[in-house]
Amino acid sequence: MKSGQNRKDIHPGLQVDIVLKQDQRTGKTTRGIVKDILTNSPTHPHGIKVRLQDGQVGRVKTIIE
Questions:
Q1: How far apart are CA 8 and CA 31, in angstroms?
Q2: What is the domain range of residue 57?
Q3: pTM of the predicted structure, to 2 decimals
């Protein structure tokens, strides 16, 4: 499993685990399919920010292969 820190590894349609803003303290992850990539920089230390198909927004923790 890859971490979600590199933008080049993430594309729409990919299944990922994200951490929602309200779950940052607990580290609870939410699984979903990427709809949009919201981070413009090539890397981010806390994970690339994405919007899932159901509309939830968070930072990618792991990419599900």
A1: 20
A2: 2-63
A3: 0.92
**CATH code for the domain in which residue 48 is found:** 2.30.30
Q: What are phi and psi of 50, to 5 degrees?
A: -135, 160
Torsion sign (Cα): 47, 49, 51, 55: positive
Phi then psi dihedrals of residue 7, to 5 deg: -65, -35
The count of other CB atoms within 10 Å of the CB of residue 40 is 9
Is the pLDDT higher at 2 or at 24? 24
Q: Tally the domains of the chain.
A: 1
Tokens linked to 48: 């690339």
Q: Are 48 and 5 in contact (CB under 8 A)?
A: yes
